Structure formats: C-alpha cells, structure tokens
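User: Round two. Same drill as before: sequence, then structure, for each protein.

Assistant: Same drill it is. First protein:
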Amino acid sequence: MDRLNRARQGCHQLAIVLVLMCIGSIPALAQFGGLTSPRPGQQIRTDEPVTFSADSVEYDKDKSLVTATGHVEAWQNGHVMRADKITFDRNTGVAAASGNVVLLEPDGEVMFADYAEMQNNMNDGILKDVRALLAQNGRMAANGAQRTGGQINEMTKVVYTTCNACAKDPTRPPLWQIRAASAVQDLEHKKIEYHDADLEIYGFPIAYFPFFFNADPSVKRASGLLPPVIGSSSSIGAFYGQPWYQVIDDQSDATFLPMITSRAGPQLDIEYRRRFNDGTFLVNASGGYIDNSAQGTFASRGQFTYDDTWRWGFNINRASSSDYVRDFHLTTGLSGDPNILSSQIYLEGFGEGSYARLDSRFYQALNSAINSTALPTVLPRYEYDYFGRPDAWGGRFSLTTEDFNVLRTTGTNTRRASLTMNYERPFIGLLGDQWKVTLHGDAAAYDASQFNETPNYATKDSIASGRALPQLAVDFRWPFARDGGAWGNQLLEPIAQVIVAPQAGDSQTRLYPNEDSLDFQFTDANLFGFNRFTGIDRLDGGVRANVGMHGAWYLGGTTFDGLIGQSYRTTQDNLFPEASGLHDTVSDIVARATFAPTQWLDLTYHTRLNKNDLATRYADAVASAGPARFRVSAGYIYTTFNPYTFYDQPAPPPAGNPYYFPRNEATVALSTYWGQYRFSGYARRDLATNQMVMVGADMVYEDECFIFDLRAFRRYVSINGDNGSTAVLFLVTFKTIGQFGYRAL
C-alpha cells in the first residue's frame, strides 16, 4: 500500500511539472525533487529563472494567471520562497505569495511574512509583517519591507534583538531590543543600519541614536567603531578611548585606539594583525605624554612554520618607563610580567623522540627595585633533548645539552657548554619486586668573567674550568597490594634508592658560575633524584641513599595516598644551606598526603619536618570542597628557607630585612553558579606580616543575548613605590551589537 501511495504521489507531482512545462512563460523544471544551493565560490546569478513546485496548479488563460496551492515552493539559484499559495501574473511578472510565507536566503537567513509580492526573479518585492531569523540567534521584525535588487531590504517600524521570547508570556518585552522607525539591511555588505532608534531594556528606552548600525550577525569581521574605553584612574584621572576596527583584507586587520585623559596627555595605541599561510604576526605600538615627556611601548609577536619539523618565532616587549605601563597597561599589548619585560627570538624543531631549540633572550626592568644593569642578555642559548626507544635489553638512553652565553653590564658574564646523559634499565624480580639501574652523567665547561660580581660573588675575577660527574643509581620498589573486600584495596610500597657518585662539595661556589641553580626547595617531589637543584651549575654528589614508604587505600569512592621519606649521605655537604634540610648527613623528613573521601572534597598536603624536633620547615596545603555549583578552595604555604642564599653571597642577610622573613601565606577562593549567574572571589593574606596581599571578585550574568560582568580587585602590596592599587570594571555586552564598560583604577 505504501508503494502504491508513493507511486500515485509521484505521478501527481509529475503531472504538475508537465503543466508547468507547458506554460510558455514559465521555464521547464530542470531537476525536480530537491533544492540545489550554489556551490562555494559560485556567483549568484540574478537572471536565473524561477521554478515552482506545488500540490496543485491552476492556469487562467484569460487573465494569464498561474495559481499554485498546497506546499508551494519557488526557487531561483539559492533563493527559496515557500507559501500556502503563490499566484504568478504572466503579464507583470509578479509572484504574489500568501499564507505562511517563508523566504530562505543563500546565506541561511530566514524571513517570514504574512504576504509577499516578488518580481524580477525574486530580486525585487514587498513584504508585509516581516520576521527574520539571523545568525547567532538574531531576530528582527518589521511592519513591512521592500527588497531591491536582491541585496537591499528597506524596513519600517523595526525591532531587533538576540533574546529569546518569554515562554510563559511571548508578549513580554525581551531583556533588550533596538526599536527603530526604519532600517536598511544590506545583504551584500552584511550591514544593518537603523534610523531614529532606541535601545530598550525590558521595554524601557535607555538610549537614543539618530543613526546606528551593526554588522550582520553572520559576519565575523567588519570595520567600524568598537565599544569605547571609559574609566578613571588615580594617576591619569578620567579617560575616554574610542577604538576603531579596520578590516584590511581577508588576512589582516588593525585596531586604532585614541585616548584622552584629564590628568595626562593624549594616548594613541595601534595594533596590526596578519595571518599568513605559514604563521601569524602581530605588532602593537602606543605613545602618550606623561611625566612631562613623550613615552610609549612596543610589542610584537609572531610564529611561522618552516616545514613539518621546524618553526621559528619571536616575542618582543619594550617600554619607555614603568609609569607609562602602569597608567596605560590596559591598552599597550605587552605580554608577560609587567615588572620585567622579556623578549626573545627562537628557532625550534620537533623530531621523533627529540627536540631542539635555539633562542636569544633580552630583559628590561620596569620595577624600581630591580637593577636593570644586572639583568642578563642571553645571546644565544641552544637546547637539544633526545629520548630513545627501548633497546634489545629493555633499556632507554636519553641525552640533553644546554649551551648558552649570558652577558651582563653589571655582573658575571658566563659561557657554558653542557651535556647530560642517562641510561635506564628497569626489570622485575621473581617476587614482584621492581628494580631500575640508572647510569647518569653531567658534564659542563665554563668560561666566565666578572666572576666576583652578582650573582656569584666569587674571589676571582674570571674563571675557565670544566667538570664531569658520573653517577650510578639503583632503585628498588616492592609494592604489596591487598584486596580487602568491603574494606577496599590497600597498597604498601617501600622505596629505596642508592646513588654512588664522587663528592661534589661546596667548592663549586668558587670554581663554577651559577646561572640555573639559584633556587630550589627540598620536598617529596625531588626526594628520589640525582640532583635536587633546578639545573646543573650546582650538582648534588656523594654516596647517598634515599628511602621512603608509599601507601594508598582505595575504599569505594574514598582515596587516601601518602608518602614519607628521608635522605642519607656518607659525608656532610656544605653546598646546601643549613635551612635547606640537606646540609647534614641525615636530611629533614619530607612527606605528602592526599585525601579524597568524595567527589566534592579533596585535600593535599606537602611538608618538610626538622629531623631533630619535627618542627615544620615547609608546608604546602591545598583543599577543595563542594559540588561544581558551589566550590570552595583554600591554600596555605609556609617555608623558613630563604632562596636568596643561593646567590652565594658570603655575608648573612642583615637582621630584620623583610626579604628574609619566613614565607607564611594563606589563600581562599570560591566559585558558584546558578542558572545564568556566576560568582567567583579570592583573597590572599600574608600571615607573617599580618597584612592582606590582594582580594578580588568577579560577578557575571549571561544569557543568550546579554552579558553583564562586574570585576573588582585590590592589591595591598607596593610596586614601584605606589601604595597598592584598586581596580573596578563593569562590562555590558549586547550580543551582536557591541559592549559598553567602565574601568576605575
């Protein structure tokens, strides 16, 4: 029966097509059964004939009228019109549509109307009671519209919004809408222009625009005015900036931001962006007048692919003064730490198990507490890493070299070539015990001048030396696992590591420069390792043993995981400061614990305890609690170790110097969301000085058409001699038409 019905329906439609083919002024149907959209890049022809499809067709020879009714479709090269009824006048060439009229544009835009009259192959016409669905949830309604040339829609009594209608009361005004006396929709240039327009919030007008335009929501890039930059600052007073966005071509664009202030001179920021087939490029330049002088910044970034293996890039940041960056940091385009601007140019390659990089780095100090002449210039630096595949014995070989030339105006100039090699061979014993034998070697050659200056302060002015330190390590783990049934699974794993190597000693401070080992912290993370330092300019040698006990308990959704360990050496190593926990033959005790009883609570704690009285020398705790809808996190850090001692100064720090107080800080943060509302806040306090460091909060409302973002930030610590800073920002976004915001700094 279904086949018979389909056959009858096909014959019925074929009969309609034959009727259409017999009408002289209506072209034959080239292909029936679907709508053919233009191919990408294919130009829309305005002289293509209009083709009809309908359930039934009547032809009045006396009046030259063709009337199609029932699921009527008329299309012309991507333009489609659907209606309950379409009447075509052969004398005038006008197609009149009524009843659920729908117009489909080639770009996906959909227009609805109660009545439409179209002619000139649907390029010209008028529509009554028009509604349109645009990209990004755009919605437009008008009393009437007139189409000209298939590119211009002139509309009267227009309303535009991206907000959904209220489901309970569709007549209720949306959160926002633009209501205009008239509007012109330019389909060719993708722009909508409004005349005599009001911006309404819940039906109440809050702003009037004699003329206003926005890009069609389907457009990702369009030249025009961007939302203004408005606010006030304690240093430059009230300020106003009006950015202009300019599309140059398909690959590049630019932004121009002139700004005026009440306490400082004018400022101009220009940013240019371009995308190439093999990479991207950005340059930002700004200039202004503050402190009775002309100042500015320059920033540029780029990255380009040479082939499947190699790519190169650069990142340049320069500024005339810290005051200018502080006052105009929102518009300068600088990246990274604003206290020390870094710039680099690099070449890097990626191979199978290997990585190579050649770069040069430059630094500029903007914080008055930093001595600019002591900052290094790295010209150049080379790094190569290789990690091989397992060999026939199951071992793996790895190699790393890091070579550099460091120059300083004030301080040590260092040239170094280094090589680190590693060979690991793991295997499993008969009782499930796990072993690993590692051969490790570090070698470096140095040539340094001004060796008696920062950061080394050695007794000699220059040095040319080299060294090599071979090491042999045997690692042992023996995991014992137990299935406790209702009591979950338990794991107990003793760990031991024995390292045999020549004694390195504290003579390193007199013989070798230090560029990469100026700071470290002894924790459970580096308990089992050849070197506790961050680099190889200082090496941890001698015969030593590292032992620990790892345990875990998995009970349903509850997880507990912990480790405790200690290090032993045959001789005391004066290279490590006393407060580091590694100075004596027996180290401090390091431990960690993680406790996660549920998905909404997890606790992690790291600590280092004095080996003699178990006093806490280092503590790092992080906790997170609550569901995703309301999450609270807290952190705490305490350490008595002073990283400044690794600058190898012979004299102890002066008493009472605040830089040498133990670090003792606590942080807390929370985040929550409910429907369209989100809130997050954080605070950080220095417990050693009993002072706040910073606080901040962010409150956001967002729905399908509107965003309101309010942010507040307060910094209590002083930077560059200021008394802290306060920032308040609110940003209102009307999706698809623009933003408005205010900044108080």
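Second protein:
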Amino acid sequence: MKKLFASILALCACLCALAEAPDGYYQSLNGKKDADLKNAIYQLVHNFTQVSSYNNLPRYFERTDVYPDSRQWWDMYGNAPIYLPWSGKLLNREHSFPKSWWGGSTGIPAYVDLNHLYPADAAANQAKSNWPLGKVDMTASTKYNNGVSIVGYPVTGQGGGSQSVFEPADEYKGDFARTYFYMVTCYQDLTWVTKYSWMMEQNTYPTLKGWASKLLLEWHRNDPVSEKEINRNEVVYSIQNNRNPFIDHPELAEYIWGNKVGQTFNGGSGSQQPTGDPNLVTPTNDMALEFSQVAIGRSTTAILQFRGENLTGNFELILSGSDKKMFSIPSTKLSTSLVNQPDGTQITVTYTPTAIGKHEASLIIVDGGITGSRIVRLIGECLEVPTLTACTATDPTDITNDSYRANWTYPANETVDYWVINRTRYVSGTATAEEVLAEAPGTIIEDFDQSDSESYSVQSVRLGYRSPASNVVFVAHAGITGVQADQGLVVQGFDGIMRFICSADQTGACIYDISGKLVMFIDTIHNNMDIDIPAGIYLVTTDQCHTPVKVAVK
C-alpha cells in the first residue's frame, strides 16, 4: 500500500531529507527565505529535459505509475484495477493541475511535465474537469463519488468561488498538495486565466491564495511523503532531470507558506556547500532520452538539459553505437560556461530513422573538468506510416450554459494517439475556429457560454498523421442541433443555387464553408431569394438567426 512507510516517515525529523538528491542539488536554496526561497526553487526546477511528446506519456507512466512487481496501473483517481497495456477508453493522461488554468497551451513545458501528470480513471477525470482541490460538503448531494474521487459543492470558505471542488482520497491528499506546491513554484511566471484562478493569485509569491495554501498545508501535514512518491520522484528525475523539492524536503512548504515563514532555510542531504570541484548535476549517468514513436520518413526531436557548477573548458559530445547515424546533435562541443549558468542550457537531439524498428545509441559526455564520462542512452522507434479512417461525429450530450460533451465513434481496430476536435464558434455572425486535443470520445468542451452556437468535427491522430475530418455536428444552447423550428429561417440547396425562406427580411447574412471560412456576405436577404453558389456544404447565419443553418448545394 501507498502508506507502507508513512508511520516511519512521520517519526523522522522535519529537516531530514526523504530522498537521495545529488550532492549540491539544493545548495542554491541555503540562506534564503520566503519569496527569495520560492524564486530559488523556481530557478532550480523550471528548466528540465522535456519528455518527447504528449502521446508518449503512457510509455513513461509504465515506469512512474505501476504498482511494484505488478502490471496494474497505480491510479489515484479510481478504485477499479486496470492493467497494462494502456487503454485510452479506461484511463486518461491527466493534468492534475488543470491545463485550462494557464490557457491550455500545448507549447509550454507544463503540458508534458511528469511531476503533475498521472494516469487517471476516465470517468473520474471527466467529473473532476478543471475544478480546484477542496473539501466537498458531504451534507449536500455529491456530483461524483467512486470511493476515491469526490466532486461536489465546497464547504464554506473553500473553492475560491467555484461551483464545485475535487477531493481526492485521504491517502493521496498529500500527493496532490505537494504536486500543487511544485506547480505554483515551477510555473510561477505563467499568467493564470482569470475565471479559473480559484486557487492562485497573479504573482510569484505567494501565488497560492490564503484558503488554498491553508488547505494544501493541512493535507501535506496529515498525509506525509510516501514510498510511492519517493520512488516516483527518482524515476521522474531519471527521465526529465528535475525533481519535486517538496518531496525531497517537505519542510520547504512550511518555509514558504506555513509555520516557518520568515525563517531562513538551510537544507539537509543533497545541500552541501560548494567545494569548488567541477560538478555536472544533469544529465544523470545512464539516463534514457526517449523519443516519441515516429513514422518512416519523418524526424522527431528531444531536448536534453545540462546544468552544473565549477565546470571548465568544453564538453566533448560523442555519438556511439550501431544506430548512431540515426541520431544527430547540433555540435560536438558544448561550452561549460553555458552549463554553469543558474538555468543551465539545453541541446536538441534529433532522431531521423532510416529503417523500421527500435534503435538505440549513446551520447557520451566527456571533459569539462569532470572525472570520467556521462552516458545518455538515446532510444527511438520507427513504425510504418499509419492508415487512418474518418471518425463519425455524433450528437453532443450534457449540454449546459457553459459546456457540453463532444462525442464520436471510430474504428476499434485502429491505434490512435489522441483526437483533435475541430471546433467552430459562431458569435454575432462571426465564425472562429480552434482545435481542442482530446483523450477519448465524450470530451467536455468548456467556455460554451462565449458562443451563440457552434459546430465540431473530429480527426484521429497517430504518429503525427491525421485522419480525414469527420462529419460536422452542430450544437446550440437550447441543446437542439440543426435547424430550429422557431428560427424563422430555412435555407434550401439546389443545383448551384441556395434559396432563403424567411417570414421577414433578415440582415447580415454570412455564408461559411465547412471549414468555417466566410465565403459570402449579403446585407439583406428576402423570402424566396436565390443566389448562385458552387456545390458544397455551407453554414448560414444572420443577425436574426445566430444558430448556423446547414445546407448542401449540389
């Protein structure tokens, strides 16, 4: 069980480090307090070796989130035993710190940071949505409860004004608290979306709102660091070369938000004062730099983080192994002056396979003043170009004022990394297109309250290739798709002709093609008015009819 060593850990002195960080890893935190201490942690952890891609996460989860000596996924969101291999229908790649809070950008490290990504029961994850952590008011009816995850109304004083909160099981409350401590420190420079900033303030210190820090500290204290977290922290470090300091040094949370605010931190193990000897902190020896699977004829890249102290001269970078020609680096020399910087530096390694199969080489790091060498294993896999069939979009469900659930089906025999929902919003006659990445059918689409109505189609993605787009499905706030009887506008399609039927003249007619591109604007349309237009499928809106009317012209 997760708490195998919890009673032992609870007896340890507060200042005793709980995991083996490399010598010197935390030395930059010594002598600092409050905002300066939080900033020092930010400088320490915010640059790291990013995993190769989002769709590659299940491969990393096999190392970070499987029960020891078992093939069962360690799911902190559900209680149903689920076993390898990965099933996107049963599990999601969950951003425990919701991505919508920073705007959902996929181009920042937070999107693929293993320190807050976990496998999650799909149903629980959908119910959790992007709600904040909090205590659920159990005197009211809960919105979701599977015995591990609870979603419901917050107790008084919690939630930061949100309608609901997510409360994990007692044995995982500390895990989530320490994850959030890491996230609001590692990404303290992000801009939080205002309507989702239930737990955060827009600053670098303290970042957490008062009610949130109080709650997380309570969970942090009551559920101390477990063997599970220690082991996971070590594996994540071996993958992306940064650590969660609040697992190694739980007392750090007290210095930043708790009962040691105002006191100076001087760490324990892994925080020795510098000796002046050359020290390459990252990458660690024999770490694996794994590339996402790639189709033959394409390339993929991975970023390798370097950070050290007192290094001299240059590093010599040597590619070795029978598959070394499939990997490339920008230069065989790396200046140690870059590596010695507080943030370190990064190099891009490229994998360009010339044959189908698994490939491995070594990047050997020598000189720079260090004794011996460091070896980074480079691992990639090349597959055939996938063949993908178009999905079938189905009617939306669970439509509310601000969200709905997008649904679709796809061939069961096809392997899919993820899906792209092509979403088109219609606001006052203007169409705006955007893409939403989805784990599985039944994905909740948020911010529906910003649209008069909208439509969506779906594409499956495998190895960067996309299927043809599905059919288009329409959704309106009334929960009715297609043409509503009381719209007062009917559009008919004939051979090269579009005809408008309306009880009164309507203004501002916008005609869009199926991709959402405006192809024609008409100031005023009249009953039985015909226009010439090429064959195709179109969407029509007017100032009086915001819900798009779909018409096929032959």
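Residues 1-19, 269-274, 479-487 have pLDDT under 50 and may be disordered.

User: Perfect.
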